[in-house]
Amino acid sequence: MNMWKLIIALLAVFSLATVIYVTVRVHRFSRIKRVAEKHRLLAWLLSLVPVAAVGLFALINTFTMMVVLIHLFVAFVICDFITFILRKAAKRTFGYDAQIAAAILLTVIYLGLGWFLAHHVFMTDYTFRTEKDLGGDLRIVAIADAHIGITLDGEDFAAQMERVQETQPDVVVIVGDFVDDDTEKQDMLDACRALGRLDTACGVYFVFGNHDMGYYHYRNFTSSELRQALADNGVTVLEDESVLIGNRFYIVGRRDRSMRERADAAALTQPLDKSKYIILLDHQPNDYENEAQSGADLVLSGHTHGGHIFPAGQIGLATGANDRIYGVEVRNETTFVVTSGISGWGIPFKTGTCSEFVVIDITSRIGNH
Question: How many CB atoms lie within 10 A of CB 267?
């Protein structure tokens, strides 16, 4: 938590610096300069309009406002740099009006695209083959990081589950961070009911993520109520547990890394029949070495949101916080898949990725012969 306090403090300082920097730059706009000749205070107030508009994002949350401010700062720096290069190349001066307008327009376009990528849920398909006998093909739908409330409320999530149903999945897995610290109870209940309406051959399975238990305990339901709502809707919660489904394949659910105690991946798979296909669910993708040695065939994770806001994912990868940000990786005989999530935490933009649910088809060569 000390690290998060440091990050928040740095964001606050940077945001304040951005307010000053952008305001000073906008003050150079020609029309504002003309106003300043007679009304200096009014000119400064007009210069504050762009950052005041950004301040409206605080109605969503403070982090969103900070993210928009940072992108506005970066856009101004980029436009400053381009203008500097043009001045050197053309050996003449350029006015500030176009530069200021370009920086604001660049921010609006970039974050507008980020808003669309966060709110529009794509469907991503993967197909893998196994030498193990599955008794036929298997279709898995993996959903992670719904964080119910930021881009999807309960009804929105239910609409996405109708799309999931159209794929005719054999099994659906929820790979953590289903709810968030500020999710409303009614939205949680509506989302659980949507899972209960899914018609699958093999059921719906759930593992907890780091947000599902609630960090600050100010939401209007408890983790016990979440468990009960899931159980009431036929969802199987796995906490360091495994289940054999139809004598065809296993689903192993790990406790999240944020929890005080959890079993090793190898300990969870040790008693299992390794001739059967093993699917391991682990919210955070940061134990690849051990999971690759565990005998699991497929490991499904979320948590990273595919990077969410560029370059946050790359920083997490470089610091070792995660083994992968997004997509597919194979180690030994284990295939790892990280989904960018059907939503994301806190910030209703995705500039490093998009929102998605994942459809995975496992082709059993033996079962098809």
Answer: 12
